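Q: How would the structure tokens look for this protein?
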Amino acid sequence: MSLLTAEKMTGGYSASHDILHECTVTADRGEIAVIVGPNGAGKSTAMKAVFGMLNLREGSIKLDGRDLSDMKPTDRVANGMSFVPQVRNVFPSLTVEENLEMGAYLRRDDISETISEVFELFPVLKEKRRQPAGELSGGQRQQVAVGRALMTRPQVLMLDEPTAGVSPIVMDELFDRIIEIARTGLAVLMVEQNAKQALEIADRGYVLAQGRNAYTDTGAALLANPDVRRSFLGG
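A: Here is the predicted structure in token form.
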């Protein structure tokens, strides 16, 4: 069984309209799992459902064998989940270091080692640790957001469109850091609009269409699948 198993999720933002239809995604330790698909496919909705930001009519969310389906997002954080939303994911008036400290709000132990680990992963944040996050570039703000999520020492890191609005060079750098994060043993679940690039680093990929699993395979196999390439990757 995978570390994270979100199985047969059915639901949406209202009781009368389901966006997800028996959607299943999983992610294991040290693995990058990527959710891709066209606009409106339910990618971000699936991510939010895993984190408890909308109610499911059916399905279950389990992390390390524990059922989190009825827990609020804050309780899921306490149980090992961490989530980086696409927008409004930093405190712009706080410094980089203060943002990281805010990420550790549930912890009662010494957080200095974790801050050092984040600075090692993202050296530019150490240089700018006293600078307000709102003054950073888009890519640097995204590093702050990911770093803050790592401050909880999660078992699974969930990223919603981490490369949205950044240059191709910054996107490649972020993907390199995500690979490094997975190598530490974390499970990474990521929603990405840049499907080809995301599948290139994915151990496991999920192609959604209209809230359903259209294809599930390794990232390499999905990239090589002619039906996936034609229908979802532009040929």
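The mean pLDDT is 95.

DSSP finds ten helices and ten strands in the chain.

Upvote if useful.
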